[in-house]
Amino acid sequence: MNTHRITRPAAWTSLALAMATPTLHAEPTPTVVVTATRSPQALADTISDTISISAEQIATSAAGSIIDLLQRQRGIEIARNGGSGTNATVFLRGANSNQNVVLVDGVRIGSSTTGAANWSAIPLSAIDHIEIVFGPLSSLYGADAIGGVIQIFTRKGQGAATLTASAGYGTDNTRAGEAAISGSLQGFSYAISAGKEKSDGFSATRPGSSSYNADKDGYDRQNAAARLSYEWAAGQEIGTQLMHGSLSSQYDNGPTPFDVRSIADINSVAFYSHNQLLPNWQSAVQIAQTRDDGSTYSSAAASGYSKINTKQTSWSWQNDIMLDRDVLQLLLERRKEEVETNGFQLINPQRYTNSVAASYNARRGEQLFNASVRRDRSIYGAKNTGAFGYGYFFSPALSASASYGTSFRAPTFNELYYPGYGNPANKPELGKNSEVGLHYGASGSTASVTYYHNRLTDLMVNINPCPYGTAEYKFGCAYNVNHALLQGVTLAASQQIGAFTFSANADWQDPKDETSGKQLARRSKQHGNLAADYDGGGWKAGAEVVLSGDRFDDAANKYRLPGYGLLNLYASYRLNRDWSALARWNNVADKQYDLARNYATPMGKVYVALRYGYQ
After folding, report:
1. Residue 587, exposed/middle/buried by CB under 10 A (0-12, 13-18, 19+)?
2. 12-612: CATH homologous superfamily?
3. Structure confidence at residue 6 as a pLDDT band (50, 70, 90)
4. 3-class secondary structure for 145-187?
5. Are 429 and 422 in contact (CB under 8 A)?
6. Within 40-160, where are the H helices?
7. Residue 120 half-sphere exposure, CB side, CA atoms within 13 Å?
8. Omega of the bond prior to 465 within 30 degrees of 0, cis?
9. Residues 222, 224, 228, CA angle at the centre, nearest 5°?
10. What pLDDT band is residue 443 in, cutting at 50, 70 and 90?
11. DSSP character for 562?
């Protein structure tokens, strides 16, 4: 019997427990996650392969961006066209960025034209903790959840008023500062934060690029976030959540004195009401809107300015009904997407998606069960998805899991309507995933192994010559033609020995385009991480190694990107009760490596910071 199971509390305030330091299974204080089932659940009781990155882990890591933080997690690879302010792609188990869903406090973000989130504009300083769930979750979250879901949680106020602040400086004249205040009083809860980071950067391209310019490509990132709520009676809460991220970044477009740059703005606002309608019935209503606005300035001429703005407005009503210790979840959702551009006109600048879903989570002794079904209807037709999972505890420390699920990715506005490229007849990509896992956790030791097999059909590719055969598609088009297979094994382990914690993870995968027989672009067959951490009370220090095998930069597998290994060091020291100092040294060996062909990556970088109020 798993002695560390918790029952779901009536109120959603239990989500605060998710800040506890996670392990894979048995732990003194259970970590609570919500993304795997859309409701609070002990991490030990999740059947889906799930990672929780706590506030403490984020603070200790001294990561320069959310991309740097994600790169150190199992099952994740990244590609980036230059430094921290440039375009980045996040792969989950080999699935592309537009095959994964990104949420901020339950609100979907991302561009409706590319289908992907703008990772470089998401502010790390506004984040409290992160949950990553691997595997198909379309039956819970709808379109695009083929590889998994990454949910970002901003800070939430609790207890007495608390002020935190930090300021730091590093290589490339990087300077950053942030401040936050949070707390709660007589039913009111508040958390407000703001931050700014600016860097001179380095040249984003190398001499082999046709866009090469030797000048430095800096960036200026600003952010603000707020969560305000009021519990006007037991189990009755209303609130609002806001997040703003703005990024102005320079990029290379060949030798030119003009300040070539792009500006990205992400804005998210949500209003919600959580209500205990009956002792066993929890209702959650949410109205939200996100904007992903992007502009580029490639020359001084008017033709050098372009913009693509997307807006998503969503309405959802989720009902969690307790049936003894089981949970029946019923969900209604509606999402409206709108696109505004200059320079060209989309055939259809908006679309609606209407969804209905149900799931059931149960436990019987040592056994866990969950099942979910969902139907999404939009202009691309109706799609039904489903999933089933089973888990069994051999002991409180050792468990096994197995699951099967279907998923789909909706064609983007570009793939449907972009002049000379899209076609309204394009269909969604479809996925079918099976996986099994084994997990162990006890007395400072954790270990897990997961095998997954995710087959994709109707994969959308850029095909040239275009089979439509008309003059407007002379440069190729988006077309449902390929099949792909994402399969692999993920291993993770950690061991605590006194004040030291040693951890490692490794992925062996085969992300393959089955139609062409080629390896999917920018995805390796092996990658992993090693880390050693020391916690001496006042002193904390650690070292990590990021490893990746070789990859190809293109779908044809013509250009090979060599494998690499990076060593990073970090340390923090508590000066007194309120003040602490932190230092991080990335890429200690000053190693040149490639994440994208002809694009530069950071050499050795040092960053130091002084912090107030962090625990």
Report:
1. buried
2. TonB-dependent receptor, beta-barrel domain (2.40.170.20)
3. very low
4. CCCEEEEEEECCCCCCCEEEEEEEEEHHHEEEEEEEEEEEECC
5. no
6. 55-61, 66-71, 138-141
7. 25
8. yes
9. 175
10. confident
11. P
